[in-house]
Write a structure and sequence with these properties.
Elements lengths: L3 H8 L4 H11 L5 H14 L5 E4 L2 E6 L4 E6 L5 E6 L2 H6 L1
Antiparallel strand pairs: 1-2, 2-3, 3-4
Length: about 90
């Protein structure tokens, strides 16, 4: 199993549009620096077994925070964050 966690924590990057997307998807209103801090903390506290690479994306599922992050595995750019529904939680 590859160590996606370390590489993502070292190289994660954001686009201007992703901040808006994360605020919208999570129904929050945080400034850029707070979003980056939140995302970093979620990745840091998520066990490596919850990192799943499918195609070009890595999905990071944190059931404690009820959130899934999607990261491009080539660029380490965050694509989106979404709340987990019951079905997604039970599948992991």
């Amino acid at each position: 199993m590859e160590d996606y966690k370390t590489e993502i924590l070292d190289k994660i990057c954001y686009t201007d549009l992703v901040y808006e997307r994360i605020n919208k998807k999570l129904n929050i209103q945080l400034p850029k620096d707070e979003i980056e801090k939140m995302i970093y903390e979620i990745i840091e506290e998520t066990d490596k077994t919850e990192f799943q690479k499918t195609g070009k994306n890595i999905y990071i599922t944190n059931n404690e925070k009820n959130i899934r992050l999607t990261i491009n595995s080539y660029t380490n750019r965050i694509i989106t964050a979404e709340k987990l529904n019951k079905k997604q939680r039970n599948n992991n």
